[in-house]
Amino acid sequence: PFYGWHYPPFFLGIAALLASMPYLVALAVWQISSFGFYLAAVRAIAPPSKALLFVAIGFPAVFVTVGHGHNAFLTAGLLGFGLLLLNRRPLLAGVLIGLLAYKPQFGLILPIVLLLGGHWRATLAAATTVLTMSAAVTLRLGPGVWTAFLEGAEFTKTTILEQGITGWHKIQSTFSALRSFGAPVDVAYAGQAVVTVAVIATLVLVVWRKADPRLVASLTACGALLATPYCLDYDMTILGVAIAFAVAHGVEKGFAPWEKTLLALLWATPLFARVVMQWTHIPLGVLVTGTLFAFLAARCLRETQGAAARQHIPVT
Predict the structure, then answer these.
(1) Do the beta carbons of residue 285 and residue 236 sit within 8 Å?
(2) Which ranges in 156-283 belong to alpha helices (H)?
(3) What is the chain's Cα-based Rg?
């Protein structure tokens, strides 16, 4: 079988380290360490609770990721800690967000959130991290590694994404859903662009309105998945971060009607998303994630409007 390499060159460092170990040892080290990192992020975000810890462990996306031996735990952990620490430790947050450059398809919206939120130190740290990693890998492997990466990226775009040899049902995106219905590539990209622009516009609005940082973080995690055409079902582990931020907000401020139901549905979605799309072409992951995204965005607007109205109540 053919196994493609779809990552920027700086991810080769982790791959080389694991390749120096026997296979089963490397698999155990990778899965245990990255899962622990993901779990630590969720525990740091969500209110202290043994029940929530078991919910995080039992999240169906966890088992999808374990079954693939993939890197979604690392992605979710970096994003979760990065968003959590933006106001507390902005430089560290920026470094963590910069490390996410190994999955560039999930970074489309992060610069917008950082810049509009006024997180200048985190933005500088993220940019410095990416530049440092790029310089290091170029010095170690030579500039030709970037040519190889671009060639591999073109293969990924045309063969994996546009032709769907992985299977449309495994890629949980608007683009893949449209392609599974037989839409031409240009139409699928146009549909994805509509969703991506809507996600960006929504995030611009809620950040500009200074919505609760936990809701913004949850929206950012959901939006990272919605905004990209290339999101496989194991990448839905990121939704664990989105759920944790939403729960943290709900426990303190109270849950809106149907919010718990939506969060529970989102939690269960990775268990069914691939099968549902395979047999019906219905992109369950996109639909449920998009529904929660819209729900939380509406809550952000209600809360910010309410806060603005209270500020203008005359004192008698």
Answers:
(1) yes
(2) 174-180, 185-208, 213-226, 238-253, 259-280
(3) 20
Domain assignments of the chain as residue spans, ordered by start: 9-306
Q: Residue 167 is encoded by which pair of tokens? A: 């299977």
Q: How many residues does the chain have?
A: 316
Residues 231 and 179: their CA atoms lie apart, in Å, by 14
pTM > 0.90: yes
Higher confidence at residue 148 or residue 4? 148
Closest CA to 216 of 241, 235, 233, 234: 241
pLDDT in tens, 260-273: 999 999 999 999 99
Say how many Å lie between the first and final Cα of the chain, rounded. Answer: 76
Helix (H, G, I), strand (E, B) or coil at 263: helix
Facing residues of 171 across strands? 232
Residue 190: which residues within 8 A CB-CB, separation 6 or more?
none
